[in-house]
Amino acid sequence: MDLMTVMGHLVTLTFKIKSYLHSPKERRLAEFMHNDTWGQQYSYALFKAMSHMLCIGYGLYPPIGMADVWLTILSMIVGATCFAMFVGHATALIQSLDSSRRQYQEKYKQVEQYMSFHKLPADMRQRIHDYYEHRYQGKMFDEESILEELNEPLREEIINFNCRKLVASMPLFANADPNFVTSMLTKLRFEVFQPGDYIIREGTIGKKMYFIQHGVVSVLTKSSKDTKLSDGSYFGEICLLTRGRRTASVRADNYCRLYSLSVDNFNEVLEEYPMMRRAFETVALDRLDRIGKRNSVLQHKVQHHQSSGTLNFQESEIIQRIVQHDRDMAQCTQLIQTSLNPPPAPPSPTPVIWAPLVQAPLQAAAATTPLALALAHQSQLPPILFHHPLAAGSLKDPTWPSKESPPWSKHVQQLWFRARFSCQLYQIQIWV
């Protein structure tokens, strides 16, 4: 733009000077404009110069004389060159404003050409289109190269921020050593699965485990009922510990945003944190026992840790707390459902997360599917849960909040309920 302005000014002065030097007709025209102010004369010359440079005309009058013709040709060439450079720079500037979207569009054009070349069916093309829309959301980044260019503290901070929802919804991470969480998060890889996709299949050799950031999956086994897992759960860790085959199939019920961890990275992280390995092994063995499946490798490892005294008091307490948490959640939920005995809820497009807590099978991840999360995802809760506690006959307890408690606000409600099981009292407070 600056170059075009300078060239326009020079051509303007050239036309102004030339009008005094050549043919009598030009001199008469110059004498005609002699009485005009300097600003008016410069404006006439600038108009003529820009008309030539932009190739839109000759100004107030066409070229007069051979010198004027050649000067007009020169100004047109200079103007066309400057104008082309201006358009090119403007186009590049507009494209650079959203380079990630442009990169996505270029990539998807290649995908479309690939689908056309291989003559893929229409339904498969639609699935590929939907996958790209949900996976990249119209923008594409080379995230690995971006993070590799940063120093380690900044890279870890960015990864922790990007995975903050996963950490917040998963007590396994929220209550663990921050160094372990950071080491684990740096190894995770983001993946998206469509409804109906089989994430893992029973009988195959496991090479990854998965953490659910968002979505609902069904755990399918031949020996037990289907189980639902949702945000904050994880699955697929047993075969990574035993290097065996998958004990169940997992299918996505809707669009699922998961983080995967390969077996090599899994073992690499757990080598640095042996207590977390023991926790994974103990929880995995407990899940296998509860669905009637045993694994000699895991059983030998857990018994070795217990008999050899390699577990200190703090580690043992943490591991037992994780296992007991899984069992307590299942027992408490089962008692609540039995006491309330709600009518069957109409079918809902959003799967209900009660089943894994009641049955507590293999894939009901210990300490990662809390009851509060189940209630938060429950599409239709029994109405009695929203009554005052004194109105729930079987759950009546004089120690509960009185009727004089502050009224429920418009946005925040407190849901209180208690359940007794095996001489233990469970009290859960859920904010919805």
TrEMBL record:
Alphabetical list of PROSITE patterns matching this protein: CNMP_BINDING_1, CNMP_BINDING_3
A single MF term (Gene Ontology): voltage-gated potassium channel activity
GO terms of biological process kind: regulation of membrane depolarization; sodium ion transmembrane transport
Domain Cyclic nucleotide-binding: 172-287
Transmembrane regions: 42-61, 73-94
Name of a matching Pfam family: cNMP_binding
CC annotations in GO: axon; dendrite; HCN channel complex
Keywords noted in UniProt: Membrane, Transmembrane, Transmembrane helix
SUPFAM superfamilies hit by this protein: cAMP-binding domain-like, Voltage-gated potassium channels
Protein name (record): Potassium/sodium hyperpolarization-activated cyclic nucleotide-gated channel 4
Origin species: Collichthys lucidus (Big head croaker)
